[in-house]
Amino acid sequence: MAESEFSEKGRAVQQQLWGDRVASGAPAAPFATVAPEYAQLVREFCFGMFWSRPGLAVRDRSLITVAILAALGRHDELRGHLAGALNVGWSKEELVEALMHVGVYAGVPSAVSALNAAAPVLG
User: Is pTM, for the whole model, over 0.90?
Assistant: First the structure.
């Protein structure tokens, strides 16, 4: 598959997560304004090659990503992916449950920290 096909698939996934702003070419995240080539690599590799694979739905990959980012303490990415998770159909209550569940396997401090980071997104 050509690189441009991965870019198209990645753009479609990102549009599901973050809407028309991404599809219009606007930066998906602040880093994209200072490193547009890296943003393109993320679109093609992460979203085009992996998120678009047929084995799991985007909605499922979204929740997995939220849990992993919470466990790793990657709060900037977590907030963005929480917004995306809401856009692909996860409810606030389900996301809170997932973040609390992280505490069982990654530790209570990880879950508390993730819930603190999630508060502005989930209200």
Answer: yes
